[in-house]
Structure formats: C-alpha cells, structure tokens
Amino acid sequence: MFLKFKLILLILFLTLGFASCNQKEAPVKPNIIIVYLDDLGYGDVSYNGATKLKTPNIDEMALAGMRFNNGYATSATCTPSRYALLTGIYPWREKRARILSGTAPLIIGAEQMTIPRMLKQQGYQTAIIGKWHLGLGEGNVNWNKLVTPGPNELGFDYSYILAATQDRVPTVYIEDGNVVGLDPNDPIEVNYKENFQGEPTGLDNPELLTMKWHHGHNSSIVNGIPRIGFMKGGEAAKWSDIDMADHFLNGVKTFIKKHKGEPFFLYYPMQQPHVPRTPHPRFDGVSELGPRGDAIVEADWCLGELKKTLEAEGILENTLIIFSSDNGPVLNDGYYDDADVKNGDHSPWGPFRGGKYSLFEAGTHVPFFTYWRGKIQPGVSDAMVSQLDLLSSLAELAGSDVRTDDSKPLMNLLMGKSDQGREELVIEATSRTAYKNGSWVMIPPYKGPSKNNMVKIELGNDNEYQLYNLAQDIGQQNNLAKSHPEKLQEMLTDFEKVRGQGYGKTKKLELK
Length: 512
Prior knowledge:
About 25% of the residues lie in helices and about 20% in strands. The protein is an alpha/beta fold. The chain folds into two domains: about 30-180 and about 245-420, Alkaline Phosphatase, subunit A (3-Layer(aba) Sandwich); about 430-510, Arylsulfatase, C-terminal domain (2-Layer Sandwich). It has a ten-stranded mixed β-sheet, with helices on both faces. The chain has a four-stranded antiparallel β-sheet with strand order 15-16-17-21, covered by helices on one side. Strands 7-10 form a two-stranded antiparallel sheet. A hairpin with a 2-residue loop joins strand 15 (about 425-430) and strand 16. Helix 5 (about 245-260) packs parallel to helix 6. The longest helix is centred in the N-terminal third of the chain and has 24 residues, at about 1-25.
C-alpha cells in the first residue's frame, strides 16, 4: 500500500513538472504599441539630421532599434494614412478616405478587418488614446448621446479620442462613445455650414483671439483659437489645448498600468505637431523654431515618459514599439504661429522635395522605426516598408492568418531579421496617385496648380509625366520621363496593374 502511494505521488510530481515546463515554453505574446505623430517630417528628428531642435528620446529608441530609411505613409494627408494603417488597404480604394470634417460618418465598415480586431481575436486588450479622424457615427451625430459606431465597433476595447482634429469642432474628448464632462443642461450643437446666432467667430471677432488665423480657420473660437466649423454649448466638456499632450499621456499610462499583466495593443496617435500648435507652457521656447518645434520636443518628451512607464511596470522587454508619422511636414497650415518665420535653415522635409499634400517624396516619406529591447538589435535598413504593411506583419507576430492583398507580411524586416521589403507602392495625395518601384518614382500628369500657395508646398502636378530615380536624384530635380521612355512605359504598365486601367493618363486634379 505504501509503495502504491509513493508511486501515485511520483506520477503526480512528474505530471506537474511536465505541465510547468510546458507553461514555461509557451510563447508570451508581446505588447504592441504604435506611436503615430501628426505632420512630423522626415527631417524633424535629430537622428535624421535635425540640428535646430533635439529629440533625445526619439533618437535613443531609434538608434537602439531598427531604422527604416525608406519608410512610408500611404498618403500625404491625415485621414487616408490612418485608414490604411488600421485596415491594411490602400486608401484610394475607399472613396470616402479624404480629409474629413468634424461631422463625417465613420468610413471603416463595422465588419471590416482592422489591426485591433485582429489582435483582439488573438487575446489582446486593445485601446486607442489620441487622435482618430476617421469619422464617427452615421452622419448627423447627436453629440449629447452615445456616438456610435466608432473605434469601439472596430475592435478597440477602449477609446479616448478627439472628436475630430484639434483645429475642428467639436472641441471635446470622447471616451467609449460618450463626450467627456458633458453637462446635459448645456447640450452641444455643431454645424459646418453656418454659425449659430450670436456666437463669435474668428472672422468677425479678432479681438477675442490669442492665435491669429491665416487661412481656413476662422469659425468658432475656443480658448482664444479660431477653429474650422461652428459649435455652440458644451462649455464644461471643452478641452484645454495646452494640457492635451499631458491629458493623453496620462491616459496612456493608466491603460498600461491596468493591463500590464496581459497582452495589449495600444494605438497612441499624438496630435503634435499639427495645428494649432499649443505645447504646454513648460515647453515654450525649448526649440529655436517657435511653437511647431516646441510641440515636437513635447512629443519627444511624451515618448520618453511612455518608455519610463513600460520600464517601471517591468514590461519594456516584452513590448514592441512602432514609431512613424501620418504624412510629411507643413509649416503654415492655417495659423500665424511663426513656424515659417522661425524655420531658418531647418529642413522638416529632410533631403526630399514637397511636403504635406504633395506627391513628391516628402509628402509620404516619413520617420519610421521599430524598437523592442533585447529582441530588435540596433540597425538601419534601406528596404521599402509602408504603414500599409502593419496589419499583415502584426498578424504574423500574433499568430493570426489575417492578411490583405495590399498589406505585405514583413515582420522579419521590422524585426531586423531580413532585408527584404516591398518592391512597389502606390502613394496618394488629395485624390491623386503616383507609383514607386524600387528607387524609381512615376507621377502621372495632373491638371491643376503646381504649388499650394497657402502652405507654399509643391503639389507634384505637371502637364507632363514625371519620372525620377531617387538613387541618383533624391531631391527629384531631374525628370527622366523623356530620356527614359522604356522605363516610363514599364512603370506606367505596372502602376495600372495595381491602380486600374487608365489611371496613368492625364487626370484633372480634384480638391476635396
């Protein structure tokens, strides 16, 4: 009997031992954080050569991670890039993926696959804290009730977002579909066509402004700043612009601490350095470039605080961080804030031509790096990678079989274990598209202004085809279309295979 008892104990211990070994061998799913800045140019970070402002926290992570010299947003404007990042689908396939008003309906389908939905299926807690700008509701939103559908219907367990953008009304935060701090006795009204009777505007009441408008931002005034669109009510819910970065950062810290014991996906789209540039007063004058430079330094500080939080909670070594920007830079984008006056010889666009709104390289060629302490070794890659590839790549990492035709699974590249990137990419800017293949870029003819005089950026429009070899002409100064007709035809044929027959022919520029 005693021997039988000992045998049972031995079997029990062995069983527990094997179970323990299996548990130790089971892979631990990494946390995933996408940090997404707004209008940050390739040359706006000191690891890419900026000298007029310092970005030590961005630099530290970039230099300790994998830097991509050829990292791209899909579009030279905000909403389309965000659409592509979350869905893995080219934005030009969705006609509504344009710069949206503050009352635009949600443009991602409720059943559509997204990064948060895919990761949620793999056991992740998911959150967005920051800028959204992909529409909300189904149109004609009643801001005084639950606003749905929104991020929570697309796979995010938790959402804390701007209703639209910082320069658009309504100027309120929305948490899981509800306006934060709303007084039901002071309901919000929003109209993008006409003002509410008796409400001051930037156009009619310049004496009330603390920031002067330059173009397009002269409607309702909130915190002394004129916005796009008209708003009435909701006084208790209106945000404080100078506290916005801290506000979102505190939300990020709270989410991380709450979910540190389980795998999480955090999408952290900052508003900096988009207009209106309102860094907290403690950052005033820290750069030589005025509020735009100060806002970039503030964003850099936020990234440093994010890293400190991960380290303090003991999860930095199990967290993949992906850093990029939604499009290229712009100086004067609607307000007089001295961004263009104080810019001096700073080059937000780096060595490239163009900027936000442009089909030239600076419109979509943005800072891009991955960081994972202990898992990604310091390095630099010249392979082409797009934010479009994040859905399929993160699916690889999470063990999901989700893929899209447009999104390439490039997790080995992002981890620094491969030098194979994507071969081709269609880029987009305000309903115009162009084609990249290797170091070659082809821009079809587009009728319209060659330059946006408001923001002083070359748009890339020309009556003739444009063909550039970036390997020899990074600034796109030498148009090779006439001297290399065979290459032009090859690029045009390949472009139309992706974009559709006829899209390489002359198009009239559509400004929406």
